[in-house]
# Entry
Amino acid sequence: MSDFLVFENVTKRFGPLTAVNNVSLGIKKGEFFSLLGPSGCGKTTLLRMLGGFEMPDSGRIFLDGKDITDLSPNQRRVHTVFQNYALFPTMTIWDNIAFSLKLSKLPKREIEEKVDAILDMIQMREHAWKYPNQLSGGQKQRVAIARALVDRPQVLLLDEPLAALDLKLRQHMLMELDLIHDQVGITFIYVTHDQGEAMSLSDRIAVMNRGKVEQLDQPAQIYEAPVSSFVAAFIGDTNFFAGEIVAAEGDYCTIRCEGLGDIQAFNDRKLAVGQNVHLSVRPEKIHITLNAPQPENGVGVNVFQSTVTDVIYQGVYTKYWIMCGDRSVSALKPHSRFLLDQAPITWNDKVYMWWHPDDGYMIENFSESDAGLVQTPPDAPKEFPGK
Amino acid sequence: MKNRKGFFSEGLLTAPSFLWLALFFAIPTLIVVSFTFHGHTPNGGVAEPYSLETWRALADPDYPSIIWRTLRISVKVTLWCILLSLPCAYAIARMDKRLRAIVAGAIMLPFWTSFVVRVFAWRTMLHPDGWLQACYLSYLRFGEWLFQCMPAFVQHTLTGLGLATSGSLDPAMATMLDSEVAVVLVSVYSFLPFSIMPIYSAAEKFDFSLMEAALDLGANSFYAFRKIFIPCIRQGIISAVLMVFIPAIGSYVIPQMLGGTNCVLIGNKIFMRAIQNRNIPHASALATLMAVSVLVPMAMTVWWRARQKARDLKKADTGLAAHIPGAKA
Amino acid sequence: MKKSFFAPTVLALVLLFLYIPILLVIAYGFSPDGISLRFFDADGNFLGFTVKWYRQLFTGVYSVRSLLDSFWLSLEIAGLATLFSCVIGTTAALALNRWKSRLQSVHYALVYTPLVMPDILIGISLLMLFVACRVECGFWTILIAHITFCVSYVVMTVLARLQDFDRSIVEAAYDLGAGPLYTFFKVELPILMPGIIAGGLLAFTLSIDDVVITAFVNGAGTNTFPTYVSSMVKHSKNLPAVFALSTVMLIATCLLAGLSRTISKRHGT
# Structure
């Protein structure tokens, strides 16, 4: 199946700043597609070009085989759910939703039916005659989505739609968005800087950085097999271990890491001996135990002695900062049993940290600035002056 | 004890302005209103007995035409000001912040020269031998030519609606100076900044992503301007209407200097009656009438704003109940 | 998005409309023709520019004496009216902001109504009062009239500033041990100052520009600059002097505005 929406070498500059740099993308019909990246990475600009609010400096945009690059926003059947909802404050909810239908000059009966149907879908029928400032954040959000969906656009754009909501509401709306997408079957393009939202909703994610797409893949692929240090560090948290491959046999290789020792890693891409790589190991994949693990089935390698420097209890898990030689490593320990009955690992404990060779992922495309995205242990505060 | 002290300081802070305005604003206004219920004496005084003869005199053929002319000119001036201010305010609000301050300043700057002097400059510009008069004449000639080109029935409809007059143009009668045209033109000139400013300050607070949202949903720019922008800044428009309409009703200097004898408005008549004819009851009656014609639209907006406020309060009430997502679903 | 050109075009034309008379005010000050302000004679010959009106103004020759007198009178009245209305207006704003009694709602109505009344009503009612009390019209009646219509504008400007201002600052001052008078002069007044200055500037411009009210209460022979100029419409041989004086005023105001801007910028307010 050929792609429904295609960006072809799209570039957009704002003065000296290149917001979007030669981006090519294909998005399938009916897909829930996310553009994920830090603020200023160009994801919103890309979305605004699709909505028709910005004109690309070069490149074309095709929707369903037609070139829509030069069409104005009101000529494209692409609707946006704005970050601040942009509900018309002087109109009731009903009139807000009916706005696009009235413009398309449908008969009155049909408009009423469609608006009522979508009000039922978002369960807001009884609020139809209220004004936007009478609604709560979640309700406004639903109205904004309904308003954009009611005349069945070809693509629905969502620009950080959950950013203004509090955590509980955000989780609730996340599920609702997923259900709405399943129901209407329209292509959704979702812009966010929140990896959690992108992961839980999307069929595919494009991770963007500095105007370029770093990786385009399914959520699990992006998390488990990041193509660059940026993707590894931006999505979730990780630990980087730099080193050189000193031996490679079969599916595994040995990396010599300065200050730590030799590390075994899965080598599916058959990297050659002598190559410099960075191994990314996610904190939840690192185990810490008071006793050395029993060697069996891949366990027993990558075991390093270390000292606990900080313990942050989070309920579901505990986050540990441990010193291994002169490097700080973060590890997550989930609590599957009643914690108070156990003797938990605590400050200054000598522990063994270890991980399975399959759980590290080797990254060739490393940039020192991306290492800054990785969490670091907190610094101790300066002394209080009156003490 | 504390209460009495609070009352004392409240009195101390309130007294200067309260007494001043009571003495020099409220009482004189009441004097004026009371004079309207007296007749006038031939030597310029106010007759002792109460009578309604002054109010009856307002029906005399001279006054209604002046009152009607004042209202008509004020409405025209207000409409022109609002019509010009809307695109101006929109354009300024869309500029970036630094340019915005400069342009807003540039609009107020002409007001640092004396109002009378500016009206005087207009008087010189509108001189019958001047270039503006020449432009105006050719505009009228063009209109006349256009009228001649139209089929007879259109001509009749236009004349019937009062939008055109039949008969050829007399250049001697079509001078701008000392006519209603000059008064309207210069009034628009004088009051325009006062209508741009309130509309602009409302437009500055307007969220322009609403315009994007409207375009996104298929509206064109003009539709979005009409259906979204104008309703959202209606408070500013109402302030602007008042800012123009009130001084236009009370206009004195502009018709005095540019209207000649053809365009006498209520303000001029009040002055004439009070100072020249020494007919104080008539001047008072006209002044009272003017006050009423200003206070009526004023009261209407106050009432309208109170209703809006009440509606907003009600909104806040129901807004709380609806805070839990999908609670009633 | 494609930019719309309609609104910016209207704005440009409106600015042109607003500025043409100002440019003419400046130009007329150099006109050699004292009566009809022409630059060209009947045959289309250019008559040239002259600075004689400026020379007359600065030397104060007899022919412009009464013009200059009226101008100084205007400045004097505007200055005094500003001073008084700032004091009265600030106390009124403080009272209106602090108390919410029935007295204050009457007070507010009393302050608000003059703002929406046409000038001519204030003029005629004051004239009636002065006539009824048999007061001789002149300098003092003009001053009283000007203070009366300026007060409301000062109150509204200061009140707007007061409503923006966070009461907890005053509470913080009390909390740290300051008394009410000390707090007023050291904390409240400095915060209110920009509002008072803005109100004062507004009062000054309104007062120096007023024709209508002054025309009612000035009595015979006392003319402020605007009433003097409006009386020149029909008979005058030195009209350009008026425009020259206005040009000098315009330049002075621009310089003052620029100066105050740089000062306020340096103080970072």
In short: Chain C has a mean pLDDT of 85. Chain C touches chain B through 79 residues (CB under 8 Å). The radius of gyration of chain C is 23 Å.
